[in-house]
Backbone:
C-alpha cells in the first residue's frame, strides 16, 4: 500500500502525519510525505529553515520506527493540492491523508481550499483528519 501525506508545519499537518503512520503500520506499505510551498520571495528564511528542520525530524522519526518512507519537498510555484495529487498519481497511491482546519465561508471563498481541491482531483481515496482541539 502506498500512502501519501500532505504535510504542513501545523497541528493539522501533524495530525495527518500521525494518522498516515497509523495507516501504514496497520496495512503495511510505503509512506510518502509531501511538503509543498510556493517558494520565492513570499517565504521568509526563518520559515524555510523551520520547515527543513521539521522534515528532518520526521525523516529521523520514521526511520527510527522502521517505516518505509520518502520525503518530497516542493517549492516550485504549484499549489499544495497540485503537488499532493501529482505525487499520488505518479506513485499510484492507494490513499491520501490530509489535515483539515476550520475556516469561515468567506475564508474559503477568498483563499480557496487545498483540501477541497485534493478531494475533487484525487483518483484514490482521501482521508481527511482534524486535530483533537479543532
Residues:
Amino acid at each position: 500500500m502506498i500512502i501519501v501525506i500532505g504535510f504542513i508545519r501545523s497541528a493539522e499537518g501533524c495530525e495527518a502525519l500521525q494518522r498516515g503512520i497509523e495507516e501504514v503500520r496497520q496495512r503495511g506499505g510505503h509512506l510518502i510525505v509531501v511538503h509543498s510551498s510556493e517558494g520565492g520571495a513570499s517565504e521568509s528564511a526563518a520559515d524555510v529553515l523551520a520547515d527543513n528542520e521539521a522534515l528532518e525530524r520526521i525523516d529521523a522519526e520514521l526511520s527510527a520506527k522502521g517505516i518505509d518512507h520518502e520525503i518530497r519537498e516542493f517549492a516550485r510555484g504549484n499549489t499544495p493540492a497540485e503537488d499532493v495529487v501529482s505525487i499520488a498519481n505518479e506513485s499510484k497511491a492507494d490513499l491520501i491523508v490530509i489535515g483539515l482546519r476550520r475556516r469561515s465561508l468567506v475564508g474559503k471563498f477568498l483563499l480557496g481550499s487545498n483540501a477541497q481541491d485534493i478531494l475533487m482531483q484525487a483518483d484514490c481515496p482521501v482521508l481527511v483528519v482534524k486535530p483533537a482541539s479543532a
Remarks:
- The chain has a mean pLDDT of 86.
- The first helix runs from residue 11 to 27.
